[in-house]
């Protein structure tokens, strides 16, 4: 089996924490490939380096040590789209993670035995189209956010879905999220929770300056189009909280369902709703 290793290199003592897991993988004769960002950090003679866009031969799995941010970054690596991700939680939250350091050996033994399942998560494609027709493209697993930049005042947002104008409204921004991203930033802004396998897109305004603007859910095949109508304001597009792009007044952001998907190794225990209760304390109350 060949795997790609993704690691949150900013996590405290990450080398010593994941070292036993790496030793175990080498004992199992697993071929380990790393990107250039890890090549100078993890000094194992048997590790091989791959270039983005050129996947390793016979790649079976991505093993991501970190948290949700590490999973998001792994989902966007060019050339390894759709390869199943086994996410190992090093932090406190890890809503998208499957395993922990303590569980890693037992869970990987099950993977080697073929005793595991994979679930597909839809992704978004965001295109920024300039007045001159230039296009910048991005892919997101969680969300695409149009938002104000440095000044603490609302921007004026023009929102369309399909061929229909939804409205023009002042707000700090708007979040376009997948079902996976519905439990992330969108949830913090009052958006709905969507079941992960739904074919839908959530549209969640951020601090709209009107009581009439509320979150929407539209079918995944409806394009969502955004532009900002404010003049002389600093406006940004942020992708999965990790990539950013400056938006000009005449730019239009078009968000559609991506043909790419992220494939996650399903948790070996529990369900989506047990994860909501355990991670987000959803619907929990003291029972007497």
Automatic annotation (TrEMBL):
Its EC number is 2.7.1.23. Its cofactor is a divalent metal cation. One of its GO terms (cellular component) is cytoplasm. GO terms for molecular function: ATP binding; metal ion binding; NAD binding; NAD+ kinase activity. The active site is at 68 (proton acceptor). Keywords: ATP-binding, Cytoplasm, Kinase, NAD, NADP, Nucleotide-binding, Transferase. It holds the Pfam family NAD_kinase. It is an enzyme of class 2 (transferase). The keyword ATP-binding applies. It catalyses: NAD(+) + ATP = ADP + NADP(+) + H(+). InterPro entries: ATP-NAD_kinase_N, ATP-NAD_kinase_PpnK-typ_C, NAD/diacylglycerol_kinase_sf, NADK. Its main location: cytoplasm. It is found in: Cytoplasm. Signal peptide: none annotated. It comes from the Bacteria. GO terms for biological process: NAD+ metabolic process; NADP+ biosynthetic process. NAD(+) binds at residues 68-69, 142-143, 153, 172, 183-188, 242. HAMAP family: NAD_kinase (MF_00361). Belongs to the NAD kinase family. Involved in the regulation of the intracellular balance of NAD and NADP, and is a key enzyme in the biosynthesis of NADP. Catalyzes specifically the phosphorylation on 2'-hydroxyl of the adenosine moiety of NAD to yield NADP. This is NAD kinase. It comes from Candidatus Glassbacteria bacterium RIFCSPLOWO2_12_FULL_58_11.
